[in-house]
Amino acid sequence: MILFALLLIPFTYLMLALLIKKAGIKKRLALVFSTLNLLWAMALIPIVQFKEIIVVQMGGWSAPFGISLVADRFSVLMLLVTAFIFFLTTVYATQSVDKARRKNGHFFFTFGILMGVNGSFMAGDLFNLYVWFEVMLMSSFILVSLGGERKQLEGSIKYLILNLISSLFFVAGIGLLYGKLGSLNLADLSQKMELARANLAVLNPALILIFVGFAIKGALFPFFFWLPASYHTPPPAVTALFAGLLTKVGIYSLIRFYTLFLYYDAGFWQQVVLWMGALSMVIGVVAASSQYDFRKILSFHIISQVGYVVIALGFFTEAALTAAIFFLVHNMLSKTNAFLVAGWVHREKGTLNLKVLGDMFKKSPVWGILFFISAFSLAGLPPLSGFFGKYLVLQSGIEAGYTGVALLALFVGLFTLFSMVKIWLEVFWKKQPEDSAMEWPVNQKPAHWMLFSSLALGAAIVAMGLWAAPIAEYCEAAAQDLLNPSKYIEYVLGPS
Amino acid sequence: MNNIILEKIALLFLRGMAIMSVFLLLRGHNSPGGGFIGAIVLAIGFIFYSMIFGSERIERILYFNTRIWMGIGLGLVLVAAVWPVFLGLDPLTGLWYTGNWPLLGEIHLGTPLIFDTGIFIGVAGLILSVIITIMEVLKWNT
Predict the structure, then answer these.
(1) What is the separation, in whole angstroms, between the first and last Cα of chain B?
(2) N or C: which end of chain B has fewer CB within 10 A?
(3) What is the rounded (10 degree) CA torsion for A412, A418, A420, A424?
(4) Which residues of A touch B68 (CB under 8 A)?
């Protein structure tokens, strides 16, 4: 029940949102339910510290036959960060998203995403993971296109088609895997693969299909096209939510998949993962430097930042997995906050084109500082969370003997800094070009809740930098669990 | 122009499909069938009916808005999922009732039926809301 509640909370909201017609009540309920979700996720942390791996079997059917929800330290951390980001974007959306969208179910579909994301983080078998992915994707398809602006529809077509292709790969892989091994429970599969260690090549077609499915969802190097093509089109609150949660679910699944299955055939997969991570890192950051749209730059940076997590996964030592988890959390927070600031700029000026923006720091130093915090945390400057994330990744890389990749990561950091400084200078520092100064009417609507959520995220980023040691300790414990799949198997299937 | 034969056939078809859908819903747990399939069969009947009479007639038959129906469906699913938790069991566990009733003989009921009914109502509501929206946009038969 402790885990099931995280599915129940969004589900109850979905039910109530269908039954209630008034937009105002739905908004308040959304706030209440996202708070509940956050509180529940917070309560899971001490429980998981005590129990190590929480397992719930749906309907009382024992593990390989029924549906199990499993949450170890890594999942619970992801659930907590998701709940935090979701709560803040909901608060943000009450002022940022226009009334027509809110009336037509903006909150309804964001809760659909929450349900899908929560489900994917807890899924104990591959098919349920697929189903939760679909729940998440269906809601995100609608959120991308909700409002029906011309630009939005163009973006959502690309988003829809490429993500459907990834689902096709994923489910095809699941089918092949089931045909070969006769089970889809993650723990059971891992156990069976260990027994079949000598003949793992038979499973490669299925594993590659699933891997490609995750890589598309996580926007890794050869499969990232959909992300920059669609993320700059929906309202900023939606982009912030997507940037914080969606690709990260793909990466989470990749880490889970790698630590449970792919590492048996590490000789092959480690190279693949390292190359994909390194190339995503470089290509994302290079592509970003040629962009002139606030949100497009940030979207390309998602690809590059995800690369860091994936190379850390490729190093595959305890320190590296610690770094990957830490970096993933840092990235979710900083990226969301950067998009929240973009949303404020969009609201004030009606555009996010760097060439016509300017003077925003004078307009509001607080928002300027908030952008500074998140952008320079992404670039990896010292007292912020990004510094420790990058430091851990680099250190573990050098320790594991991948100095080349680690140095590459360092260079990518430099380019990230370049992009962030570019946004900073163009949007906040430079004088607004005169010909575009009077183009947009000044917006007088209140934005205090938007500021609140951005402040909370900014505080979280700084706190994560200041208290990096205890968080890294938690991540280390999570990494130990990830490196020891027999523990996961034992908790799910019961002692053998 | 009213074509009386077509109208009667459409009505008959709707009734036939409605009965068939309830039959499919009830046999669902142990034999092929279930809430989802039943809902689709019911929706086919409604679609045929609305092609002839227009979408307002379905809205009148449904009484509630389709959104409300979807909400009721989800509510039933929720009840079936949470009920066992209050008895100290895992969520979604099936609870069964067996008893002998006069006239009806042995009755065997459980929470899976509530769950399936929820799916039935929810899916039928969803399909009909899509159909009604499309018909309103196309101004079909109005």
Answers:
(1) 13
(2) N
(3) 170
(4) 18-19
- Would you list which residues of chain A are within 8 Å, Cβ to Cβ, of chain B? 1, 4, 8, 11-12, 14-19, 56-60
| Cβ within 8 Å, pair A56-B90 | yes
What pLDDT, on the 0 to 100 scale, is given for residue A493? 85
Q: From the candidates A1, A14, A18, which should be mutated to test the interface with B, based on the most B CB atoms within 10 A?
A: A18
Residue A54 phi, psi dihedral angles, 5° rounding = -95, 130
Query: ipTM of the predicted structure?
Result: 0.88
Mean pLDDT, all residues of chain A: 87
Closest by Cα among A492, A232, A434, A448 to A346: A232
Our CA-based measurement puts residue B75 at a distance from the nearest CA of chain A, in whole angstroms, of 6
Q: What is the pLDDT of residue B13?
A: 92
What is the per-residue pLDDT across B19-76, written as a single tens digit (0 to 9) for each?
999 999 988 777 888 889 999 999 999 988 888 888 888 888 888 888 899 999 999 9
- At A440 the pLDDT is 56
Instruction: Check residue B93 and give its pLDDT.
Output: 82
Choose among A92, A238, A89, A216: nearest CA to A161: A216
Beta bridge partners of B99: B107
Q: Rounded CA gap, A325 and A78, in Å? A: 9
Show Cβ contacts of residue A124 under 8 Å, excluding neighbours closer than 6 positions.
Answer: A55, A63, A67, A68, A69, A70, A185, A186, A187, A492
Nearest Cα to Cα of residue A420 among A341, A325, A351, A364 = A341
Q: Which domain holds residue B134?
A: 4-138
pLDDT in tens, B61-82: 888 888 899 999 999 999 998 8
Q: What is the pLDDT of residue B14?
A: 92
- Closest partner CB to B71 (pick from A1, A4, A19): A19
Tally of structural domains, chain B: 1
User: CB within 8 A of A216, min separation 6: which ones?
Assistant: A162, A163, A165, A166, A169, A223, A226, A250
| Phi, psi (deg, nearest 5) at residue A69 | -105, 125
Q: Which residues of B touch A57 (CB under 8 A)?
A: 90
Provide CB contacts within 8 A for A70, sequence distance 6+: A53, A54, A55, A56, A122, A123, A124, A186, A187, A488, A491, A492
Interface of B with A (CB under 8 A): 67-68, 70-72, 74-75, 77-78, 81-82, 85, 89-94
Total residue count of chain A as it appears in this document: 496
What is the structure's pLDDT at A439? Answer: 54
